[in-house]
Amino acid sequence: MSGSSITVDRMFSQSHAKQVFRVDQRLVACYAWPYCDDADFTLACEASLSPAERIRANALGAPGSRPAFIQRRAFKGWLLRTLGHGESALHTPGAGWHRRSLQRDTQGQSVSVTSTDALAIVALANCERLGVDAEPPATDTDVRALAATLFTPEEHDSVQRASDNDARVLFHRLWRLKEAGLKYSGLGLAQDLNRFVFAGHGSGPLRVQSSSRLDQHISMTTPAFFECRFKGLDLALALPATSGGAGRWQVARAIPQDPWQNGSATSGRTASAKGRSPAPAG
Predict the structure, then answer these.
(1) How far apart are the first and last CA of the chain?
(2) 158: Cβ–Cβ under 8 A, 6 or more apart, which residues?
């Protein structure tokens, strides 16, 4: 193992956080990595990427997007390698769940990645599909105008009729859930943001309504949708629905199973969210 690999492994090991959530009869493990401003660390991370990942990184032009992409992909790779060597990702003491490891090449296990200005988040679960999204509310965004452009008429009407604060909360909840659903389906935002439709108001319950434009030829289990909070962020999760389980007809809460499991204190080089451009998902 090279010196740069040891440095990357040490940083990821010491500075990530983990939280396990119960989602119906499954567990989802969420890991967070705070982006670091150190150029040498980013260079070391880049050395661990595949040629295809490096090409994609070099094509990114937005300020801050390239180092964030490199660190995010390197963190995901490190995490999967670590779990493949025996660390338990989904283990809750006393909850009746046996210890298990998540490996890159093991069938029936899925990974999904999302990003904010300051954090890379990787979700792992023992199921065939998984989608996760984090979208912190932006106070300077005209959510009513965006809802009119992006969402269904019914969803836009719900945002329009809400108070200013509830409208902002609802818009970002809908966006997170829709993007988690698209990741679950293996699709991008450009392919149909309204593939999944939700009805409700503000921070209250949301009903799940599949769009009439849902492709019936796609062979997959209908997703169930869940929300949770991790590292001060609201997350949306999409997983295969289970018979009689929550999340298929109404968005449900994922239940935290243990406190955050953090590495050591993050380095002073860790970037704050302020002033960083949003990084593309991937």
Answers:
(1) 26
(2) 170, 199, 200, 201
Structure-block tokens of residue 45: 């991370």
Asked if residue 110 lies in contact with residue 186, where contact means CB atoms within 8 angstroms, the answer is no
CB atoms within 10 A of CB 104: 12
- So what's the pLDDT on residue 98? 27
What is the CATH number assigned to the segment(s) 3-259? 3.90.470.20
Q: Note whether 225 and 236 are within 8 A (CB).
A: yes
Can you tell me which residue has the tokens 């009513």?
Answer: 144
Q: Is the pLDDT of residue 258 over 60?
A: yes
Strands 26-34 and 119-125: antiparallel
C-alpha span between 134 and 214 (Å, rounded): 23
Task: Centre a 10 Å sphere on the Cβ of residue 2 and count the other Cβ atoms it contains.
Answer: 10
> 258-273 in b/e burial notation, b at 16+ Cβ within 10 A?
eeeeeeeebeeebbee
Q: With cut-offs at 50, 70 and 90, classify the pLDDT of residue 85.
A: low
- Whole-model pTM: value is 0.82
Task: Give per-residue pLDDT as tens, 30-84.
Answer: 999 999 999 999 999 999 999 999 999 999 988 889 999 999 999 999 999 998 7
Confidence of residue 135 (pLDDT cuts 50, 70, 90): confident
Cα–Cα distance for residue pair 104/84, rounded to 1 Å? 7
Q: Is 89 exposed, middle or buried (0-12, 13-18, 19+ CB in 10 A)?
A: buried
The answer on pLDDT for 169 being more than 60 is yes
How many angstroms separate the most distant Cα atoms in the chain?
58
